[in-house]
């Protein structure tokens, strides 16, 4: 390349975006879906500064929008710290179609392994877990609007791998490991966090046998549904916090990585290669119809998260991480049918999804 060509390149006019007045620039980006923000933050320093600025979210709040987002806690090898990703749509540049990808959120620091995660409003509470293989009682609050984290008051006890759900403005953290082994659940306590007052309370000693490891939990109809290897339990933490009822029908399936859509529990049965549904009112299991041959084969585990409007996202591990968006509906006669909106590889490499958290971000 000649020196004249180099000089010509250096004299190229700046991008029209960079010359926009700040107010117009903020207004344009405020109207873009937040799923693009991790990608935009990599474009330039100006974009990176804007997507973390309070001015942008103040403008979005004026527009009066709430956006459903999926946040994913990922460990590289199930022993390293947690890094947070979000499910994003990225332009394909091809024919107006789009790719779906898990994009790392670099502004969030590594967090403890085997912590408990719950979404409240536009935030995620991260509680306990293993930090440098020591159990911690720390609590962090992730602001999903600015992708920043701040510490909150510690829990009364240090635990890892607990059940955590939100009922009536309170977070309940149940059981978990309080020793060095993540495969043993020794804690028989329930801790309650009042979201409004930010005060922790130790509630009670629980009436189950020690040594049980929690594999899955969901909240439905004001109750918490939990599963160990040996039993499934139902608890009403408000009216009967120290009483756990065994549910043998619920436990007849190995429900793991489950989610709730319109008061029905769903999970993907990797052995049976089907999406199963449990209706707590009917106390019965069923199989979601219409998905045969539409999901990847040979997945070793799965995680599901509700996605609003009668939908869920289902993450599946093969040699890569797949994700499918599935709409579910109950048809005449009571059968539940599913429609796959899309199904793609969203992350390659040796990673493991530890949990996925749906967050309704108030904008």
TrEMBL record:
It comes from the Eukaryota. It comes from Brassica rapa subsp. trilocularis. The gene is A06p057800.1_BraROA. This is F-box domain-containing protein. Residues 14-60 form the F-box domain.
């Amino acid at each position: 390349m000649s020196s004249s060509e180099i000089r010509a390149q250096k004299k190229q006019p700046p991008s029209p975006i960079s010359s926009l007045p700040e107010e117009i620039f903020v207004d344009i980006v405020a109207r873009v879906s937040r799923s693009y923000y991790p990608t935009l933050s990599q474009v330039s320093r100006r974009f990176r500064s804007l997507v973390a600025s309070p001015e942008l979210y103040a403008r979005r709040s004026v527009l009066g929008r709430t956006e459903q987002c999926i946040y994913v806690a990922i460990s590289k090898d199930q022993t390293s710290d947690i890094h947070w990703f979000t499910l994003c749509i990225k332009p394909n540049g091809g024919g107006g179609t789009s790719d779906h990808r898990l994009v790392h959120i670099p502004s969030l620091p590594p967090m403890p392994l085997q912590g408990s995660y719950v979404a409240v409003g536009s935030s995620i509470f991260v509680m306990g877990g293993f930090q440098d293989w020591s159990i911690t009682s720390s609590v962090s609050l992730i602001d999903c609007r600015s992708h920043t984290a701040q510490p909150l008051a510690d829990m009364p006890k240090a635990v890892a791998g607990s059940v955590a759900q939100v009922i009536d403005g309170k977070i309940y953290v149940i059981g978990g490991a309080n020793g060095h082994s993540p495969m043993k659940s020794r804690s028989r306590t329930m801790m309650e966090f009042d979201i409004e007052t930010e005060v922790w309370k130790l509630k009670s000693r629980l009436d189950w046998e020690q040594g049980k490891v929690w594999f899955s939990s969901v909240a439905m109809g004001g109750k918490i549904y939990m599963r160990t290897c040996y039993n499934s339990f139902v608890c009403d933490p408000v009216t009967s916090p120290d009483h756990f009822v065994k549910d043998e029908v619920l436990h007849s399936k190995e429900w793991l990585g489950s989610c709730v859509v319109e008061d029905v529990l769903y999970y993907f049965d990797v052995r049976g290669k089907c999406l199963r549904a449990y209706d707590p009112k009917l106390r019965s299991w069923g199989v979601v119809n219409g998905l045969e041959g539409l999901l990847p084969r040979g997945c070793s585990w799965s995680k599901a998260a509700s996605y609003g409007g009668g939908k869920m996202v289902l993450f599946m591990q093969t040699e890569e991480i797949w994700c499918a968006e599935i709409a579910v509906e109950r048809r005449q006669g009571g059968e539940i049918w599913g429609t796959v909106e899309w199904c793609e590889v969203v992350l390659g490499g040796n990673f493991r999804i530890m949990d996925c958290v749906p967050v309704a971000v108030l904008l």
